[in-house]
Amino acid sequence: MNPTRLHELLACLWAAFGLYWVVSAARGTHATKSGEASAYRLFRIPVLALIFILLLTKWLRIGPLAWRFIPDGDVTRGLGLALTVIGIATAVWARRHLGRYWSDKVVLKVDHKLIRSGPYTYMRHPIYSGVLLGVAGTALAVGEWRGVLAFAMLAINYSLKARKEERLLSTQFAQEFEVYKRHSGFLIPRFGRR
């Protein structure tokens, strides 16, 4: 697949993912019991927008951001596309397992349950892991340093957000969450004894 067609396909995949996210969020979740202030969300949205502008448009394809970090080729583009699809699929799978407990903010829902099924069996933040894998795949397919910058920004953003979530879950679920942490990975899956 030529680079232009691949770029269009990647943009369509991320647009479909974004549409799914908006539609699934509109279907409703449990009422919020407690959590972070909305101001944090107002900070994260522009950061996410910048990440996807870096990845999917040519607007910031300037200077060192446009330099290649990996040689272009069919194998690199194919692997990048595969990782993007696997990452998006993982995030969707995780979102479906959270169901009505999902939120784009760090919150606890009324009657909140600690989800440990599906991808949550192996990692505590599979939505973030999936999106990070997808962005890494897109960065690989694009092959330019702007993709590496986008991935680094997202990794920092999600690591900070995940740590906030862990503090909140630890307060709510205490010992149950500590056991869960010992058997699951933070952003990378942990397989083995349960």
List keywords for this structure.
two-stranded antiparallel sheet, 194 residues, mainly alpha, Four Helix Bundle (Hemerythrin (Met), subunit A)
Structural features, described:
This protein has 194 residues and is mainly alpha-helical. It has five helices and two strands, in the order αβααβαα. It has one domain: Four Helix Bundle (Hemerythrin (Met), subunit A) (Up-down Bundle).
What CATH architecture label applies? Answer: Up-down Bundle
How many β-strand runs? 2
What value does the average pLDDT take?
89
Overall shape: elongated
Give Rg in angstroms. 18 Å
Number of helices: 5
The helix/strand series, from N terminus to C terminus, equals: HEHHEHH
Query: Structural class of the secondary elements?
Result: mainly alpha
Strand order of the largest sheet: 1-2
What CATH first level would be assigned?
Mainly Alpha
Specify the helix fraction band: 55-70%
The biggest beta sheet reads: 2 strands, antiparallel
Uncertain stretches: none
Give the terminus-to-terminus CA distance: 42 Å
- Within the CATH hierarchy, at the fold level, what is the topology? Four Helix Bundle (Hemerythrin (Met), subunit A)
List the domain count as a whole number: 1
Strand content: under 5%
